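F.,

This is the one I mentioned.
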């Protein structure tokens, strides 16, 4: 007790004046008119942070190569950011080569929108709404505010940890600060919506596009959850940093009424601009067709068993089967000049690797081995396979539940032996899906047109969400629509 008392005396002075320091460090934001604490990240530091993080974003996602699409987004961005309350910021707009529906902003004026989001939007005004919203995060200095408050929260956690003589207390509160920094608060999100409406109308866009696109986002999230078998409340892509979409739809719809109900919509112009744009994974990233994965840029393909869902991630391809409890992870690694058997032996040094065997896969030297493990609480055999491919190894990690039927074991084994190089003609002919346009004619229905699309499942639902169609809404003759082929 005496030690705790002395620590309070030691740190109490600082703890008592900390609120006064925060109050003195508050400034009035010119965009919102509100006081905010941003003292620990100056505008100059925002520029430095943005420039540094921009390089990482480009490296992780890559940028869209089509100059027409890049110019289209930049021009919209210039319109919505031309009259902000922060003329000191040089706003820069980028299209990420990503199928995920997402948009975000970095400090210093860096704003990103994905191919996936452009595909979901149904007019130019909806794209403007997204870019204006992200501009609002920058003029609202939300990143600087989160950073400054996060640092102070972590500092406070350290002091409290010292008072309690407990690293655990400091760690717990520090984690809370990190979580706070990982997403926008509801207040910041609402503020960015309000500012976004201001900026998009200054750019002469129809304000109702913000609520219509938020509604499309909400429906896309619900569909993604349905396809993945998750609850619709699960955070996903855009929603992990842009929460409470249902409430935002109602709020922005009401706020839009304060503005003139005119302004540009630009439906056909938007659709014609994105016509031909890649939908889903690109050739540079590799893509799935049914149960086969193709990577034209790297020149290979392989096939997974029927019923497995393929997810293409930046550094690996994952195929899973909820029904069988099995999974496949595919990636690539440097060969380090090792023979396949030696490589497999050194792949997992902390495991008791068994039955190591040299094999050949479609003329390529390879090796395999296995070890026992637990996956999601089930006893599982992990089969490792390394195949020499040029100066690298392509690697399969296959989780096979114990007592799996022989048919499943055979199908998983066949996945390994299905790996092969693409011929030159295949590399030129195998292409990812892309956005196509059609003008509806008499007799066209959502179901009939969706059946002609390249979607593998939930064809009608995907078609409706892609085109912003209500659950019972049908096609109108003479109107332009999107499809995927």
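My design for it:
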């Amino acid at each position: 007790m005496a030690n705790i008392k002395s620590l309070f005396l030691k740190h109490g002075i600082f703890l008592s004046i900390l609120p006064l320091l925060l109050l003195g460090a508050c400034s009035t934001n010119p965009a919102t008119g509100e006081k905010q604490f941003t003292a620990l990240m100056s505008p100059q530091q925002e520029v430095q942070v943005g420039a540094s993080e921009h390089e990482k974003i480009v490296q992780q996602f890559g940028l869209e190569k089509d100059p027409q699409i890049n110019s289209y987004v930049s021009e919209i961005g210039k319109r919505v950011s031309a009259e902000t309350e922060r003329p000191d910021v040089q706003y820069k707009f980028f299209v990420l080569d990503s199928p995920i529906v997402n948009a975000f902003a970095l400090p210093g004026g860096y704003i990103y929108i994905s191919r996936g989001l452009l595909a979901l939007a149904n007019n130019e005004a909806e794209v403007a709404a997204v870019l204006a919203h992200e501009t609002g995060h920058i003029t609202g200095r939300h990143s600087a505010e989160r950073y400054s408050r996060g640092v102070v929260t972590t500092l406070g956690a350290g002091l409290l940890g010292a008072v309690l003589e407990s690293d655990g207390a400091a760690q717990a509160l520090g984690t809370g600060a990190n979580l706070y920094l990982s997403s926008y608060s509801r207040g910041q999100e609402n503020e960015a919506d309000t500012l976004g409406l201001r900026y998009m109308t200054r750019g002469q866009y129809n304000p109702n596009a913000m609520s219509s696109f938020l509604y499309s986002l909400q429906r896309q999230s619900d569909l993604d959850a349905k396809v993945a078998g998750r609850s619709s409340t699960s955070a996903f892509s855009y929603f992990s940093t842009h929460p409470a979409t249902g409430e935002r739809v109602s709020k922005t719809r009401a706020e839009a009424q304060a503005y003139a109900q005119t302004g540009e919509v630009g439906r056909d112009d938007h659709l014609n601009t994105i016509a031909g744009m890649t939908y889903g994974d690109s050739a540079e990233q590799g893509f799935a067709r049914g149960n086969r994965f193709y990577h034209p840029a790297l020149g290979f393909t392989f096939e997974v068993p029927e019923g497995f869902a393929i997810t293409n991630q930046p550094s690996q391809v994952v195929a899973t089967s909820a029904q069988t409890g099995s999974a496949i992870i595919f990636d690539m690694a440097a060969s380090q000049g090792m023979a396949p058997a030696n490589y497999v032996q050194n792949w997992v040094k902390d495991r008791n690797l068994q039955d190591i065997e040299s094999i050949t896969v479609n003329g390529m030297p390879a090796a395999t081995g296995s070890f026992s493990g637990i996956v999601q609480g089930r006893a599982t055999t992990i089969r490792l396979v390394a195949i020499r491919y040029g100066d690298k190894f392509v690697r399969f990690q296959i989780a096979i539940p114990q007592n799996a039927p022989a048919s499943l074991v055979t199908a998983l084994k066949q996945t390994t032996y299905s790996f092969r190089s693409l011929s030159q003609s295949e590399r030129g002919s195998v292409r990812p899906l892309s956005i196509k346009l059609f003008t509806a004619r008499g007799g066209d229905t959502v179901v009939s047109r969706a059946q002609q699309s390249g979607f593998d499942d939930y064809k009608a639902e995907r078609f409706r969400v892609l085109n912003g169609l209500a659950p019972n809404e049908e096609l109108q003759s003479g109107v332009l629509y999107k499809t995927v082929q």
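The chain is about 45% helix and 20% strand.

Talk soon.
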